[in-house]
Amino acid sequence: MKFLKYHALGNDYLVLNPVDAKRELTAPEIRRICHRNFGLGSDGILYGPLPTDEADFGLRILNPDGGEAEKSGNGLRIFARYLWDQKQVSEEPFTVSTPGGIVTCKVGSEVRKIVVEMGKVSFDSETIPVTGPKREVLGETVEINGCEYQFYAATIGNPHCVLPLDEISSQLAHELGPILENHPLFPNRTNVQLLKVLDRSNIQLEIWERGAGYTLASGSSSCAAAAVARKMDAVDASLTVHMPGGNLEIQIAENYVITMAGPVTKVGDLQLDWETMEKLF
Length: 281
Description:
globular, 18 strands, 2 domains, 18-stranded mixed sheet, Diaminopimelate Epimerase, Chain A, domain 1, 5 helices, alpha+beta
């Protein structure tokens, strides 16, 4: 089975064309393929292009735990680069349908910088979803390991929990991430971002992704956290998101429609040997 591997700021995905797959992968097969010791290793699998009447291309995003994500900003940029490499798109904008909504992508002459209009961020508890009465989830409190943390919840087609903090670290993301991901507040689980505002034009993130764990970078997390910082009136409408894997440029419209721009790097073509699929765990 043939895969193409790309990374977006260290957030790596395998692209699998359904034509090469022959059939849909099972959850145990996805877990094995994404495993960094027993498989090809990745933060997920981009399964597409798929036929759709809603957009130019359809895409499914398979998490390394065998589940499925509604949307992925880095995954969408990678998929756009893949379509460019396969000569299926030109420099004209094109649309991609995901379970989390339709986005518009553009690959310019500088193929390593890809622009995606990710859609509108919502803070509505029913849309995210977050348990409790219908409301915008802004500056609420959650207790973790005896400590209280302020959080904001948002969705850009997938759920996010953003914690503004004075200091952030990968260690703290590993500590708080899995607890918040599976917290009863979030019936569909959630992605988690630790947010530090640097100034009006820059924020810093540490990220724990739902179904993937600690991640060097995330496009949808960047969009959600940037929107939260804007909602807090802590940043301007144009800003840079700094993550361990690198930086993304974010533009926030008045209605919280987010446009994201950042690089994609091709890693290589990979061929899976089915020997590694024996005795799946």
